[in-house]
Specification:
six-stranded antiparallel β-sheet, elongated, signal
Length: 159
């Protein structure tokens, strides 16, 4: 093989190796979703029993550290998240208000773009006790109870 062919073969191999490292050319995103808005209640009631038997829910979930084409960007276990807007039964909302004494803190939940249009306007009530009540050994939650309705907004991460 001539020296020119050896150099050409090496360049072809290097091009292949470099392009295989990042086939899409896109930088990884911090998190991903399936971009699917869900309304099924069982996954929420199973993970968060304190929400009782909700009337309805609009929610999304995903895994941190995954690219938009579902390739993992880091090795190891994934961290899952859920963001939900949940219409509680009035008795459940009343119980959460009386038992955990959330107050208007001026905080507004920061949700995935797909859910923002369903977020009610107005004030939200929060408290560390409410967050704890809606968390468990697997999920850590930040909870926002809407002041003028029975709507609960949750942002939860699977620890």
């Amino acid at each position: 093989m001539t020296p020119l062919r050896v150099v050409a073969a090496i360049l072809v191999c290097l091009t292949f190796v470099v392009s295989a490292c990042n086939p899409t050319g896109n930088a990884p995103s911090g998190d991903t979703t399936s971009d699917q808005i869900r309304h099924d209640l069982v996954p929420l009631t199973k993970r968060f029993p304190a929400i009782g038997h909700p009337i309805s829910a609009t929610w999304m979930g995903g895994a941190l550290g995954v690219q938009s084409d579902s390739r993992a960007t880091v090795p190891g276990p994934s961290i899952y998240w859920i963001e939900a807007i949940i219409e509680l039964e009035p008795s459940t909302a009343d119980t959460l208000r009386s038992k955990y004494a959330p107050t208007a803190s001026g905080q507004i939940p920061s949700l995935n773009e797909g859910l923002r249009t369903d977020l009610p306007t107005g004030h939200f009530l929060t408290s560390p006790e409410l967050d704890t009540a809606l968390s468990n050994k697997d999920w850590r939650s930040a909870a926002y109870l809407h002041d003028g309705s029975n709507t609960l907004v949750m942002r939860s991460v699977d620890d």
